[in-house]
């Protein structure tokens, strides 16, 4: 007579610690190994014991067994899927839902923050260009990402942090940032000036462009954010303003920055080329050749590659009125930097305020380009003097500008009182 296998005893037992235990033998375990379940009450242990025995009898040992809680969760999840009422034809099963959610969680685990993507983007663009970014570009990026300084002499801990993009979004997953959030940030902190709005957007976009190209985000939230339209017309000194500049030059207060300001006005040199920056040296007096020798007979300024915005230097011919301003400086004082940013930045800003042009960026260089072209009538000559290579941009800014009548002639007459330069008017101090 065959002996039937002994039916496993799943009767709960109480432990010394007061818990109720259900021992599941290998023959009843879906893993093939002994299991031990713990319960706080005898009733719950008994219920689970009966459920296991019933499930094994109906479906076999290898089938999955849900606890009562798991069964309830599964039923709720199935009802949620059924109640979606989606228009498309989707696989609305627990398996599909779990798969999608698992991929979502894995994506979050591997997600990159906005700060991490910014660093990756900067590193990539640096490798692409093959050179480090300029101090000015780094400073501009730092201001947008961490907030601007209230003034040039402010300390790092005085930054206006609420205007920093990373302050708001730096720790967040790059895939979680929306177009609306970026737009609201720009409108709140940078909408007062079209120039600064565009500047901020110019540094924010590369973060998301970089993430999108590498598949770290599906949609680029900056794809439809565009620059604000700002005045295309440049601003130049009016006759009234450049005559006032001549008067200010001849006051005791601004005597020590006359050489630098006159180089800006009458040689078209950029402020960074004149005063230098953290990664560029200032223009030196030895680069100003008032008494040339050899083939180059006209006085000129040797703007070297280390001074310029790009990598190539240029020779800038000086007109007689500029020479006359520079000659007001005693030869014994023509040493070192023509105008040092560290030493004279505050006075330079006061001069701009006194002239009424403190908010007009590059007005001295734009005045030079406009008046030089309209007076000498040569595209090539003016472009070479300014270090321009893009004729289209040059024409847009300088050729199409319509200055005041006679201003292009009068500009080159602005000289110190008592100067004996041909065709130069004298402006006495009032």
Strand order of the largest sheet: 1-2-3
Helix content: 40-55%
> Would you give the CATH topology of the largest domain?
hpI Integrase, Chain A
When the domains are counted, the total is 3
Kindly report the oligomeric state of this protein: single chain
How would you classify the helix and strand content by structural class?
Answer: mainly alpha
Protein model, in words:
By secondary structure, the chain is mainly α. The chain has 3 domains: 9-57; 114-213, no CATH class; 239-413, Intergrase catalytic core (hpI Integrase, Chain A), CATH 1.10.443.10. Helix content is 46%, strand content 5%. It contains 17 helices and 6 strands. The protein has a 3-stranded antiparallel beta sheet, with helices on one face. The protein has a 3-stranded antiparallel beta sheet with strand order 4-5-6. Helix 7 (179-190) runs antiparallel to helix 8, helix 10 crosses helix 14 and helix 14 (363-376) packs antiparallel against helix 15. The chain starts with 12 loop residues before the first strand and ends in a 20-residue tail after the last helix. Residues 1-5 and 424-430 have low confidence and may be disordered.
